[in-house]
Amino acid sequence: MSRFSHFLAVDWSGAKGARQKGIALAVALAEGGPPVLIAPPDPRGWARTEVLALLCDLPGATLVGLDLGIGLPFADAGAFFPGWDASPQNAPGLWALIDRLCAADPHLEAGGFVSHAEASRYFRHGKDATGDRFLLPGAASREGRFRVAEAAQRNQGVRPVSNFNLVGAAQVGKSSLTGMRMLHRLGGRVPVWPVDPLPDNGSVVTEIYTSVAARLGGVTGAATKLRSFEALNDALDLLGSPPVEGTGALDDHSSDALLTSAWLRRVHGQQDLWHPPALTPAIARTEGWTFGAL
Asked: How far apart are CA 179 and CA 4, in angstroms?
């Protein structure tokens, strides 16, 4: 019997604006049945503050997967922001710093952080606008810095982008920064694994990467996005989940959330996913981890 009653997947967005078409939520029940999309309170899409409110009032014991980075690279340099005396020593300190520097930004946006005189030096902002501290001295790659969990993801056949990169369709930097503002506002109401220890009962928030879920859910090939009900239901079948109703085209935000909620339900009992070899206490408290990365 599962210790969780609900499995909630949140496909997140770091875009500007009050409401986001790029945010999708889906839930799968431990008792079975197909995953179900949760409709936003407004047809224009979810507000990030509405997702925060939902996380503060979760039903039963819910395992939440957030598709965003809950931390920044730390282990490679012994700091999030080497050379900046305001650099925090752990993930909760990082969340607090981001939220404080973004106090004037509405809708949990993160413009105030990436434009800050010191913080901006660590990010790639555009094709010809890269901070002078985006790369570590002697860096072998121009891609930027990566967390230990992201190295593990690469070993599983997916290609994460550095959270310090704010450029391109695949970037997740803005999503991660806005998500960290939300985690700070969550204020310890729900443990965030592995920054917080996994409790014996109650709800838990984790980081997910939907491409990892798609891979472990049987989606192969270079692309991991599912853009039709038929493709989604083929993947759900591989996860032992009943199909969702519908035919034809489906936006990838919805399919990501639906697939990942069913994947969380299927794999959450695998103890190795909670104890990856490279996840040390120091990594847990600073960089965090991606559930499913080994």
From this structure: 23
pLDDT, one tens digit per residue, over 192-242 is 999 999 999 999 999 999 888 887 666 665 556 888 999 999 999 989 999
CA distance 168 to 119: 20
Joined tokens for residue 220: 């192969």
In the numeric block, which tokens belong to residue 149?
Answer: 């969990």
- pTM, entire model: 0.96
Report whether pLDDT(262) > 70.
Answer: yes
Domain boundaries, the chain: 1-115+146-294
Q: 3-state DSSP call for residue 163?
A: coil
Q: Cα–Cα distances in Å, from 104 out to 20, 100, 112, 150? A: 19, 9, 7, 31
Expressed in angstroms, the distance from the first to the final Cα of the chain is 24
Q: Which helix (H) or strand (E) holds 8?
A: strand 6-11
Query: How far, in whole angstroms, is CA 244 from its chain's centroid?
Result: 24
Q: Where are any strands of DSSP class E within 124-241?
A: 124-126, 129-130, 204-207
> Distance between CA atoms of 68 and 46, rounded to whole angstroms?
16
Q: Are 51 and 141 in contact (CB under 8 A)?
A: no
Q: Which two tokens stand for residue 42?
A: 């407004």
